[in-house]
Amino acid sequence: MTVTEQTFWVVIPAAGVGSRMQADCPKQYLELQGKTVLEQTLAHFTHHPRIHGIVVAIAEDDDVWPTLKVNTDKPLYTVNGGAERCHSVLNALNFLKDKTRDSDWVLVHDAARPCLRREDLDKLMITMAQHPQGGILAVPVRDTLKRVDVACIIEDTVDRERLCHALTPQMFHIGMLREALEKAIDEGVLVTDEASAMEHAGYSPLVVEGHGDNIKITRPEDLALADFYLASISDEAASDYDGLMADDG
C-alpha cells in the first residue's frame, strides 16, 4: 500500500506548563512571528494533503486554546491532557478509537516543535508507510556526551557512535501504539516518547534522519533560535508536492 492509499492522523500533546521557560504562560502559547508557538506547529499539518485529521490534547483548565483561530478544513478535535505526555497521547488515541482503524497511522508531534521541515515530514510518511512497525525522526548526536553523578561530577564520556537525538513526529500504527502505551502505563513505566513505549512492548522502531533545526522550545533562549530557523526555512506551507510525494506515485 502506497502513502497515497493510507490514512494519517496527527496527535499534538499540548497540556504541559513548560516550567523551564520561566514564562507567564505555557510555552506553546508564547508568541513566535505573530502567532503562538502552537499555531506555528499546527500549520505544518492543517493543510497537508495526506493528513486526515488532528487531535490536540490540552489542559482541562486551558483558556487560551478557545481563542485561537486555526484555519483548516480538516477535522480538528481536542481532548483533555493527562498527568504526563504518555497519558495525553493515550487519551487522544482512545478518542480516535471509533473514528479510525487500528492500521491507520498516527504522527505524534510536540506542541513546542514549530520548525518542522516539510521535506522531513514527507520523508517520514513515505518511509514509514512501508514499514511494519513505524519509527521516528532523529538526528545523529554530534556533541561529546558526559555522564554525571548527582553532584554534577563527570563519571565518564559516553561513546556517541550510533547515538541519535530523538525528534518528532513519531509515527506508528494507531492500534499498536495504543496497546504499547497502555502496557507501559499499566506496568508503571514512565515513557518519555512514543518510541520508548513501542520499544518496551518489544518493537524495533526505525529511525529516519531529519534536520537539526527541528528544535523543541524548552528554555528561554530556544524561542529566539526558533524565530531564526522559521525565518530561514522557505515557505514550506505554500510549497508544492512535486518532490517526495510525486516520487511516491
Helix/strand class: alpha/beta
CATH superfamily: Spore Coat Polysaccharide Biosynthesis Protein SpsA, Chain A
CATH topology annotation = Spore Coat Polysaccharide Biosynthesis Protein SpsA, Chain A
Morphology: globular
CATH architecture assignment name? Alpha-Beta Complex
Radius of gyration: 18 Å
Enumerate the spans where pLDDT stays under 50 for 5 or more consecutive residues.
236-245
Number of structurally distinct domains: 1
Distance between the termini: 11 Å
Major beta sheet summary: 7 strands, mixed
Q: Helical stretch count?
A: 7
On the 0-100 scale, what is the average pLDDT? Answer: 90
What proportion of the residues is helical, as a percent range?
25-40%
Provide a descriptive summary of the structure in words.
The chain has 249 residues and is of the alpha/beta class. It has one domain (3-231): Spore Coat Polysaccharide Biosynthesis Protein SpsA, Chain A. 28% of the residues lie in helices and 23% in strands. The chain contains seven helices and eleven strands. The chain has helices at residues 37-46, 85-95, 118-128, 174-186, 194-200, 220-232, 244-248; strands spanning 8-14, 31-32, 35-36, 51-58, 76-80, 105-108, 135-140, 145-148, 154-158, 164-173, 206-209. Helix 2 crosses helix 4 (174-186) and helix 4 (174-186) packs across helix 5 (194-200). The longest helix is centred in the last third of the chain and has 13 residues, at 174-186. The protein is globular and about 50 Å long. The model is unreliable at 236-245 (pLDDT under 50).
